[in-house]
Amino acid sequence: MQELKAIVGQLAGYGELIVAGLAVIVGGMIAVLLLYRIASSIVKPGGKYARAMKVFFGAIYAMVLVVTILLAAQRIGLPVEGLAGPAILLVLVIAVIFFFIVPFLPRVPFIPGNMVQVKDVIGIVEAITAYQVVIRTFDGQTVFIPTAVVMASPIRNFSTVPQRRVELNVDIQPGDDVERARSLLLEIMAANEKVLAEPPPAVFVTGISGERASLFAFAWVENADWFSTRDALWRALRDAFAGEENVSLALPQLQVSTTKPPTNP
To answer: Which residue ranges does the record assign to the Mechanosensitive ion channel MscS domain (predicted)?
Structure first.
């Protein structure tokens, strides 16, 4: 009990030092974040200087941590003379290594939580290791793919962009009113509240044959709304076309040709 009281008393004596250290760390973090945002408003963070900006401000924050640790160590009586220079030099060396070497190291172009497609597997990334990538598919399966296979395969990352395009390929009867079909598709997409106004929805005629007239319609939505919006648009399209007299969906057709066999003379 006496030992516990001694430890608590010793920690209480360092209370002011702990509060001051936390204040310096939090204040430094906020200052670095504000400076980074100011610099980002001048230099586009997605441009060619993005990596240099992140490394620079990361190094500044690391130096704030190093200085805070050295001051705290000196305050409690630890020998820190001559350590400031090597510590700052170490931070600079790590920053240089991070800037020049890390970008060239092989890595997968996604992080846990991203929705990706690797070959024919689509789902949410749950884990990434040096040996395998774990993907949870939308039907509840857990798929383990060797990391080497992932790196050698085409990868679609649906989470890297904020917006995604919903596409509708529609076939109507060749004799139907194509312009009415175009305007109807535009009305359906414009009426959906999740469809973005910019870029605007569009409809194009991609072909007309004796069997069908093909239209290609698309609209842009937020990435998270892609599945639900596509479902809503298809259902709205079905209902709208069902009530139209001059427009109807084309049905598969099968043509059978018969010829009379030649008769012998």
So the answer is: 109-159
pLDDT in tens, 14-43: 666 667 767 766 777 777 777 777 776 666
Alpha helices in the chain (DSSP H): 2-13, 15-42, 50-75, 84-100, 147-151, 178-191, 226-242
In a domain, 216, yes or no: yes
Q: 215: domain CATH number? A: 3.30.70.100
pLDDT (tens digit per residue) in 88-134: 777 777 777 766 666 555 667 888 889 899 988 999 999 988 889 99
Amino acid at 42: I
What is the spatial distance between Cα 105 and Cα 127, in angstroms, rounded to a whole number? 19
In a domain, 264, yes or no: no
- Give helix 50-75 / helix 84-100 axis angle, nearest 10°: 160
Same domain, 194 and 137: no
Assess whether 97 and 122 both reside in one domain.
Answer: no
Domain that holds residue 147: 115-157
> Between vectors from CA 40 to CA 114 and to CA 20, what angle results, nearest 5°?
90
